[in-house]
Amino acid sequence: MLEKLRKRLEYVEYKPLYYTDELMNLYCNSTVTGGEIAGKSVLITGGTGGIGLALAKRFLFEGCNVTISGRNEEKLRCVVSQTENRHKGKLSYVVMDQLNIMDLTQCVKELYSSKKYIDIWINNAGIFTDEDKEKKFRSITKSQYRNIIDTNLISTIQLSKLVAECMESRGGSIINIASICGVVGSFLYTPYGISKAGVISGTQKLSEIYKNKGVQIIAIAPGSVATKMGNLKIGDNISRKCGVLNRASLPEEIASLAAFLSTSTGKYVSGQTIIASACEEL
Fold this sequence. Notes:
By secondary structure, this protein is an alpha/beta fold. The protein has a single domain, classed as Rossmann fold (3-Layer(aba) Sandwich), CATH 3.40.50. Helices cover 39% and strands 13% of the residues. The longest helix is centred in the middle third of the chain and has 26 residues. The mean pLDDT is 89. GO terms for molecular function: oxidoreductase activity, acting on the CH-OH group of donors, NAD or NADP as acceptor; quinone binding.
């Protein structure tokens, strides 16, 4: 009986694909820049997990000096200590409060007034709430809405402007991590979708201001990614019907794209948002 039903119904069977350390390492053991950005200094906001941690590992592998930022110093210190054996002295951290404009201004000023110039700045820090995921816009409070907009949009644009002003003398790259949710209609009314649509628009506007001053400002809009924010973790099955890959993207893939865009070849892309979703439709 079951066999007859199978023959009558059209279906596609997706084999499990588990996000393992082995799979993760496959995307971490070859260069995507050919050594071009080795020795450059990189700062990644929200660098203690998910895409942020993958970014840190990618740029360390490419030979960069990496600084990660966040509000939780214990988490930052833990990430640095875990990489100490493999990348001794190459990874450091700075405590930065994304919601405090005075703190952001002071941190950027100190980073660019020291001998350690930041060549590549990646605005990755962000939040994606359960209400956003379930598109429960009407149940979100005013304070929740404000917190999402301040964290994802306001701080990203403020940091981009502060850093761009510091980069005018020597040039550099600013990469903002947006989201496919800022592009597709089904998420545009959620606070997360609104915030990421703002990041995409803000990236374009800032690029128009600084494009003739040697500063590259671009955005990457990932689709579903195998991170805690996306309700996935190491050991989970990431196979799903979403685009040509039939799986969620790996944070390591997003990190590799960011590294490539930081090269001289990647600098031909400026002011634009690269949608990294494998044709996924939400």
